[in-house]
Design brief:
alpha/beta, Rossmann fold, 3 domains, 7-stranded mixed β-sheet, 5-stranded parallel β-sheet, 16 helices, 46% helix, disordered N terminus
Length: 415
């Protein structure tokens, strides 16, 4: 290119820049369209590798399904949605690093994550500091919406207290109040066992148990200890692959003939990984796909199966609800600013095609915890494809959660 060509090119670019600036002031249509092409970026951090990977992947699947659904209907605030997923590798430091990367480098508008409660809490320290709206789809430990609650953090899954309070009456009524716990030694396990012990002591129960590493593989010593204790119920509080391994060893010891199984979560992903003898016990589901009397659920399950070739689990629902929560809040706030999203979401009720269950499902104002139904029932070998669970009772979230004051949440909002 000649010097003359270069000079002309620079003058042309300069004039175009001036024209663009003027058109932004008067709101020229083509500029509005150009700005609208910038996607709404939602960052998701989850342990896609490690013992919780199956649960994490389902949350991602549900979020991706919602992403496609939202984009098909016009996006968020007239802009398409882009989900950016990072692997926390079930490590707190990595989860924090990935969160900072999504916010600082990728410029995401919202953060979702993590399945691991300890990572979710560490992430919330970052998102709160940076005033970024944060949804925890599936990290259960109580302090996230309790003693360590934050103005910008909302949670879809239950607290450990909610799950424990919902299922304890059934376990005591059906089997007795002498229990043995096998519990993961991290934030989720500690608060879950504490909640169960509190509920059990109210009815005069007794317990023993072991706390084991989140990625434990050999349960023989603990199972021998449980066998000697002769409990009415063994509560397997482990998660993901670790829970599956524990269940397999439990059946290899023949212990299913000596005691009942039960606890808070025995999720669809984990049930499918267990032998039929270990597909048993009384548990909670935080959402369940087989709700024939709820037309929105019937349609959702059919559409989800057609699109993904799998049956949606509670984890899929967590991811799905998280994405639609962003849409609902942004539509109401007319903004993606963290403080504005948080303000409009308090006490917001989810529409039936997002709640996907009977009754009123809302984010409670005082602690930002979702108040859904808790599905209590028994797990059994499949009666039909993926039909491993029969619902006996729907426990309202408000009933199981107790009051905001009892959670210890004292919300401090940004000035």
């Amino acid at each position: 290119m000649s010097k003359l060509d270069t000079s002309v090119g620079r003058r042309t670019i300069l004039k175009a820049g001036v024209a663009l600036g003027a058109s932004q002031v008067i709101g020229a249509p083509y500029v509005v369209r150009a700005l609208g092409e910038e996607p709404v970026k939602i960052g998701m951090v989850n342990p896609l590798t490690g013992v919780l990977s199956a649960l994490a992947q389902s949350e991602v699947d549900g979020a991706k399904y919602a992403e496609a659904e939202i984009n098909k209907k016009g996006g968020i605030l007239g802009r398409q949605v882009q989900l950016l997923v990072e692997d926390s590798a079930n490590d707190v430091g990595t989860g924090v690093q990935k969160t900072r990367k999504l916010i600082d480098r990728d410029k995401v508008d919202v953060i979702l994550g993590d399945v691991n409660s300890g990572i979710a809490y560490a992430m919330s320290q970052v998102t709160s500091e940076k005033k970024v709206f944060h949804i925890v789809p599936g990290g259960h430990t109580d302090p996230i919406t309790g003693a360590n609650c934050k103005w910008n953090v909302f949670r879809v899954c239950n607290t450990t207290t909610m799950d424990a309070n919902a299922v304890t009456p059934e376990l005591v009524k059906r089997f007795g109040k002498k229990w043995f716990f096998i519990t993961p030694d991290y934030a989720y396990g500690h608060t879950l066992q504490d909640a169960f012990v509190k509920a059990l002591k109210k009815v005069g129960g007794a317990f023993e148990g072991d706390m084991l590493p989140i990625n434990n593989t050999d349960f023989s010593a603990t199972l021998i200890k449980a066998k000697a204790y002769k409990p009415n119920v063994l509560l397997n509080n482990m998660g993901g692959l670790t829970q599956i391994n524990c269940m397999k060893q439990f059946t290899q010891f023949g212990m299913q003939k000596e005691m009942a199984l039960g606890g808070a979560l025995f999720e669809l992903e984990s049930i499918k990984g267990c032998p039929p003898d270990a597909q048993t016990g009384w548990w909670t589901m935080e959402w369940w796909w087989n709700q024939p009397k709820v037309p929105e659920v019937v349609k959702f399950v059919a559409d989800f199966r057609a699109a993904t070739k799998k049956t949606p689990s509670a984890r899929d629902w967590f991811g799905y609800v998280s994405m639609h929560t962003v849409r609902l809040a942004a539509d109401k706030a007319k903004s993606l600013e963290g403080p504005k999203l948080a303000a409009v979401l308090e006490d917001m009720e989810l529409p039936p095609d997002v709640a996907l269950q009977p009754g009123k499902v809302r984010y409670r104002k005082g602690d930002h915890e979702l108040m859904p139904n808790i599905f209590v029932g028994d797990v059994h070998p499949a009666k039909a494809p993926d039909d491993f669970f029969t619902v006996a009772e729907l426990v309202p979230g408000d009933q199981a959660a107790g009051t905001v004051e009892e959670t210890g949440c004292k919300m401090t909002r940004p000035t």
